[in-house]
């Protein structure tokens, strides 16, 4: 079964009602994927279910207590509280039904639909953009990160049991985050977690990839000074330097540390050289703790690749003016692209996972 067959193309509800009266919004053929809000269902259920015990207590007080004042006052307060809880739960259900929070996609862009207000075009699909998949070592969590001139946009999903096995094709194209829980967080523009059901997550990824099949191998970033840092097809651009990944080049991973007062920061570096061009990409090294692989996590092909790309010897810190900062989330995608390029040296090429 191919990866595209694990999620039906028809998933996602039509979002025509979102575009009515709003110029620049998703078209009538767009698809909306509703977000899953952790704990929201439990909160609404608690609001509704909490009303019934209050009514029962009021009836008990009315039947048992002899004092007239207590028999009237206490049930009145309890019934009033029950009505407030019930109305609050009903309003939340009506609000969610009218404006479901989630993600809408069409040929023009990837839109974030907040709980109130018009959709926001967070990833214009008419411009170059990248889509990077990041997964946990246990393969129970995945985050899709879209990079574009607008910035970064994150969507996450948690996989369990049969869902993890059915959507295994996604993991073949994902990069592993080991010891970096922050890389697996997905927050929407409103600051709240942005999560999808596994089937909707896969359908969204495939829908975007169908619009631009090359996006899975592309990065559209910028460094701390605003200079471009992009990976598009077979070319890596770092500021004014361009590296042809079809031509021989040299690259090496390394780690180094620097002291800041009483603290010590550990960095991961990626040195790239081709002809007269040279760049050193630098990112903080996440806290990588010893990890034991059990039955729930097999050493699959992509995980073996990532573990190999993470290996780096210690070196002296590179000159500060030669460093180019990169988000550590994208270190492995860049190294993977460099690893596929021909090597300028005459040394035997390393075995690929």
Tell me what you see in this structure.
The strands form 4 sheets. The chain has a 5-stranded antiparallel beta sheet, covered by helices on one side. Strands 8-7-6-9 form a 4-stranded mixed beta sheet. The protein has a 4-stranded antiparallel beta sheet with strand order 10-11-12-13, with no helix packed on it. The longest helix is centred in the N-terminal third of the chain and has 31 residues, at 68-98. Helix 2 (40-49) packs antiparallel against helix 4 (68-98) and helix 3 runs antiparallel to helix 4 (68-98). Strand 3 (102-105) and strand 4 (109-113) form a beta hairpin. The protein has 3 domains: 3-35 and 107-216, no CATH class; 40-98; 221-340, no CATH class. The chain is α+β, with helices and mostly antiparallel strands and 353 residues long. The chain has 9 helices and 17 strands. The chain is elongated, with a radius of gyration of 26 Å. Residues 1-23, 39-48, 93-98 and 349-353 have low confidence and may be disordered. It has helices spanning 16-19, 40-49, 51-64, 68-98, 161-166, 168-171, 198-211, 301-310, 331-340; strands spanning 13-14, 31-34, 102-105, 109-113, 120-124, 130-136, 141-148, 151-158, 175-177, 219-222, 228-232, 235-238, 241-244, 250-260, 263-274, 277-284, 323-325.
């Amino acid at each position: 079964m191919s990866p595209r067959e694990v999620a039906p193309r028809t998933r996602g509800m039509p979002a025509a009602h979102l575009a009515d009266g709003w110029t620049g919004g998703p078209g009538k053929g767009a698809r909306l994927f509703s977000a899953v809000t952790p704990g929201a269902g439990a909160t609404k259920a608690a609001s509704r279910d909490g009303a019934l015990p209050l009514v029962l207590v009021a009836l008990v007080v009315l039947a048992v207590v002899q004092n007239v004042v207590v028999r009237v006052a206490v049930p009145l307060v309890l019934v009033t509280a029950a009505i407030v809880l019930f109305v609050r739960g009903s309003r939340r259900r009506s609000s969610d039904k009218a404006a479901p929070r989630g993600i809408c996609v069409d040929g023009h862009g990837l839109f974030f639909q907040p709980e109130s207000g018009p959709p926001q075009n967070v990833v214009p699909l008419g411009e170059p953009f990248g889509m990077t998949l990041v997964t946990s070592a246990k393969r129970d969590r995945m985050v899709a990160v879209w990079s574009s001139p607008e910035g970064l946009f994150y969507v996450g999903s948690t996989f369990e049991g049969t869902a993890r096995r059915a959507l295994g094709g996604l993991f073949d194209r994902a990069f592993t985050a080991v010891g970096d829980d922050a890389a697996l967080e997905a927050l929407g523009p409103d600051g709240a977690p942005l999560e999808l059901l596994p089937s909707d997550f896969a359908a969204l990824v495939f829908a975007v990839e169908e619009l631009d099949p090359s996006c899975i191998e592309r990065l559209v970033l910028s460094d701390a000074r605003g200079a471009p840092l992009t990976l598009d097809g077979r070319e890596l651009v770092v500021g004014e330097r361009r590296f042809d990944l079809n031509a021989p080049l040299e690259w090496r991973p390394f780690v180094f540390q620097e002291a800041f007062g009483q603290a010590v920061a550990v960095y991961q570096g990626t040195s790239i050289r081709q002809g007269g061009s040279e760049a050193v990409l630098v990112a903080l090294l996440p806290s990588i703790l010893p990890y034991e692989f059990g039955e729930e996590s097999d050493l699959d092909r992509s995980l073996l690749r990532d573990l190999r790309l993470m290996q780096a010897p210690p070196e002296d810190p590179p000159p500060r003016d030669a460093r180019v900062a990169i988000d550590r989330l994208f270190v492995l995608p860049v190294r993977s692209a460099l690893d596929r390029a021909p090597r300028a040296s005459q040394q035997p090429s390393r075995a690929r996972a």
